[in-house]
Task: inverse folding
């Protein structure tokens, strides 16, 4: 092997005649093996705004599920705090940009979202971490210690 190695995304290739099918783990490495996500994906995307996370979809081939990074501008996200009797929202500073692969199933996107959002949560310390966990009702019990 020389100093250059060519690598192809399997989604950009075509099989030769009589080639055996590729294993599912190669064709769809991020696919979830069980469970069904209903509205939980939409709700979690909306809830991520409370922590300054904007979630966007992109085309990324079959070998990338998503990524999160620090926001590079001073934008704000609109977070709905009340729907009735009158819609009310607040502005939250944008802290992170999270990109999800639009070609993946809702279940794979949900798993990626939870995985990517956990990275900055685990790096955060002190008061900010307690506040993030307190807002994540259902993900931590009231007696969880951080």
Result:
């Amino acid at each position: 092997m020389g100093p250059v190695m060519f690598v192809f995304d399997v989604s950009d290739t075509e099989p030769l005649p009589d080639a055996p099918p590729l294993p599912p783990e190669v064709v769809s490495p991020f696919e979830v093996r069980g469970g069904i996500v209903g509205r939980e994906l939409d709700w979690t995307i909306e809830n991520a705004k409370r922590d300054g996370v904007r979630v966007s979809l992109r085309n990324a081939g079959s070998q990338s599920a998503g990524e999160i990074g620090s926001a590079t501008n001073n934008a704000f996200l609109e977070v709905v705090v009340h729907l009735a009797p009158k819609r009310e929202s607040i502005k939250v500073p944008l802290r992170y940009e999270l990109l999800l692969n639009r070609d993946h199933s809702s279940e794979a996107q949900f798993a990626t979202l939870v995985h990517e959002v956990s990275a900055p949560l685990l790096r955060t310390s002190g008061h900010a971490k307690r506040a993030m966990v307190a807002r994540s009702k259902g993900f931590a019990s009231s007696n969880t210690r951080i």
Residues 137-146 have pLDDT under 50 and may be disordered. The first helix runs from residue 24 to 27. The chain is about 30% helix and 20% strand. The helical segments are 24-27, 40-48, 106-123, 126-135.
